[in-house]
Amino acid sequence: MPVHADARRYLTGVALEPPWSELGIENARNRRAARTAAWAETPEPVSQTRDLSITGPVGRIALRMYIPEGASPFPVIVYLHGGGWVLGDLDQVDSVCRMLCNATKSIVISVDYHLSPEYRFPIAVNEAYRVLEWATQHVHAFGGDGTRLVVAGDSSGANLAIGTGLMATDRQGPRLKAMILAYPVCRPTFDTASYQAYGAGYGLTRKDMQWFWSQYLAHPGDAGNPYAVPLIRSQFTGLPPSLIITAEYDPLRDEGQQLIDCLRRDGIVVQTLCVNGMIHGFFVSAWAPTHRRMAVDWVSSNIQPIVSM
After folding, report:
1. CA distance 299 to 309
2. Is 250 a catalytic residue?
3. What is the pLDDT of residue 16?
4. How far apart, in whole angstroms, are the C-alpha atoms of residue 192 and residue 252?
5. Full-prediction pTM beyond 0.85?
6. For residues 47 and 68, is the Cβ–Cβ distance under 8 A?
7. How far apart are CA 184 and CA 41, in angstroms?
8. What residues pair up with 113 in beta bridges, in sequence order?
9. Tens digits of per-residue pLDDT, 96-154?
10. Torsion-angle region of 269 (φ positive above 0: left; ψ -120 to 50: alpha; else: beta)
């Protein structure tokens, strides 16, 4: 179907802005913060929010916890924001975390991991794994059930979610019930059909993704590490059931499909949603209210049977 009107309006609004890759780190972060502030929404109420921090590999990791109404114990979703490992913060995903909290009746723990290039791979994925460990040990104090643990994220945050899922499999814990992945970043090759078709003019560009990857990977050899580049993994046995969302006009669409194919090849139960008419970023964005709500409701209806087992 054609690009949806909501996405067209967004693309028109940002058409004259330089791409992320031309801004430099400080200016890119300032623009991201300005967009987050400009698109601020009336917060969807949840029973309680808590801002806290825990000790991580390179210092304190800031967390924001969203607790739903209802009787505990609740499932727990550890959420990792996108932004090419370079941009983003807790405020950027506040709205979608609130929506997920209420829709899934889960505690959502949003992670403010350290950003690249100051903190390159593997720091962010190690921090995400540390939060999973912390959640299994401590979330009961907030009404959570650490045995019903889910890792989730969008874009580069979904990449971190896959990396932590692989770590948890390789290290035999923490045990995950599921992964929720919105348009995941899976490999730095930039040569798929969706990159060729949508790598310019649809928001996220091929040049942007090349720049983001160059900020994230510390050494050339890191491209051979599946915790950074999941699709180089030879097998995925042991990963939990996964919900994967892609967007029709996203340059990352095809690598998301490649991940789906690899997981299914190795016997992982995967449920998928390709959102027609949408572009990269819609899952966390105020400019796509109808499609964001639809995707959150799809996640809720499909995650409930998994976390209730």
Report:
1. 16
2. yes
3. 85
4. 8
5. yes
6. yes
7. 25
8. none
9. 999 999 999 999 999 999 999 999 999 999 999 999 999 999 999 999 999 999 999 99
10. beta
Record the tokens describing residue 106, joined without a space.
């889960």
Q: What is the C-alpha to C-alpha distance for residues 117 and 134, in angstroms, rounded to an integer?
A: 25
- Mean pLDDT, consecutive 10-residue stretches, the chain (309 aa), reads 95 91 94 90 95 97 98 97 97 97 98 98 98 97 97 98 98 97 97 97 96 96 97 97 98 98 98 98 97 98 91
Backbone angles phi, psi at 39, to 5 degrees: -100, 15
Q: Which residues have CB under 8 Å from 285's CB, separation 6+?
A: 10, 39, 292
The per-residue pLDDT for 213 is 98
95, 280, 285, 291: the active-site residue: 280
- Cα–Cα distance for residue pair 94/161, rounded to 1 Å: 18
The three-state secondary structure class of 110 is strand
Q: How many domains does the chain have?
A: 1
In this structure, the number of other CB atoms found within 10 A of the CB of residue 18 comes to 11
Beta-carbon neighbour count of residue 308 at 10 Å? 9
The span from the CA of 55 to the CA of 28, in Å, is 28
> Which amino acid is residue 143, in one-letter code?
G
- The reply to whether 155 belongs to the active site is yes
Looking at residue 232, the DSSP 8-state letter turns out to be G
Interatomic CA distance for residues 176 and 189, integer angstroms: 29
Q: Which of 250, 254, 285, 291 is catalytic?
A: 250
Could you tell me if 309 and 28 are in contact, meaning their C-beta atoms sit under 8 angstroms apart? Answer: no
Q: Which of 155, 156, 194, 285 is catalytic?
A: 155
CB 122 within 8 A of CB 48: no
Domain with 208, as residue range(s), is 5-307
We report the CATH number of the domain holding residue 28 as 3.40.50.1820
Which pLDDT score, from 0 to 100, does residue 15 have? 87
